[in-house]
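Q: Given only this backbone (31 positions), what sequence would you predict?
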């Protein structure tokens, strides 16, 4: 999990919308 946070900080603002979409897509798949 720490690695993910480091990637987010390294990627900057561009990574956040991508991560949000990934979380939403994962939630839809799990449902």
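A: Predicted residues:
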């Amino acid at each position: 999990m720490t690695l993910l946070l480091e990637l987010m900080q390294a990627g900057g603002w561009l990574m956040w919308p991508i991560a949000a979409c990934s979380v939403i897509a994962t939630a839809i798949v799990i449902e």
